[in-house]
Amino acid sequence: MTNDIECVLYDEARIDRRVRELAREINLCYGGRPIIAVFVLKGSAFFASDLIRWLDMEVTMEFMSVSSYGMASVSSGRLTVKKDIDSDVRGRDVLIIEDIIDTGVTLTTLKGLFAERGARDIKVVTMLSKPSRRLVPFEADFTGFEVPDVFVVGYGLDYADRYRNLPYIAALKRSVYENEK
Ligand code: 5GP
Ligand code: MG
């Protein structure tokens, strides 16, 4: 499996430090107000679990799995919810925890969905962002690392459901995904 790795971008120690810094920023921002933390599955599972254990407010853990239809879903607000959360978000502070923001389409649509459901406030924390790839302008409230336009795997991120369990974040060799097209 590690033969498929081009290079490690962020190792375990670096990730751990950044996760704690993000948690400090988030703690300051909410000033102790309780939140609903929405794990966007499956990619954010490790990041979200590592992050929320450093948060000092009351945290309700929720899991969601979605897929968007590209650009069409932004204008239509259409998003396939494959697994929905259990909590009612009306009047609540929602923190969406994402693995990576690429085109920005998924998060734009997902924020719209929680707004429609009556959340009081919706913020987004993402482990990674690829700003050069945006199709819609989208800025997370908290970002772990900005990455260039390379395909990354590990620490929850997959390619064809593989590599999620790597403890670091790495660039995948181009030959891996080009051979399988
Ligand atoms: P978007 O912002 O394009 O709507 O959606 C972002 C989603 O695309 C992420 O949640 C992730 O599933 C996938 N994605 C984008 N770039 C990468 C990448 O470099 N590696 C992996 N594993 N997934 C990616
Ligand atoms: Mg995702």
Task: Explain the overall architecture.
With 181 residues, the protein is α/β, with parallel strands linked by helices. The chain has a single domain, classed as Rossmann fold (3-Layer(aba) Sandwich), CATH 3.40.50.2020. Helix content is 28%, strand content 31%. It is built from five helices and nine strands. It has helices at residues 12-30, 45-52, 72-76, 105-116, 174-179, and strands spanning 5-10, 35-40, 59-68, 79-83, 93-101, 121-129, 142-146, 152-153, 169-172. It is globular and about 50 Å long. It starts with a strand and ends with a helix. 33% of the residues are buried. The mean pLDDT is 95.
Summarize the structure.
Helix content is 28%, strand content 31%.
Give me the CATH fold name: Rossmann fold
Q: What is the succession of H and E elements? A: EHEHEHEEHEEEEH
- Average pLDDT, all residues: 95
Please work out how many helical segments DSSP would assign.
5
Strand content: 25-35%
Low-confidence stretches: none
The largest sheet, given as strand count, sense and whether it forms a barrel, is:
6 strands, mixed
User: What structural category arises from helix and sheet content?
Assistant: alpha/beta
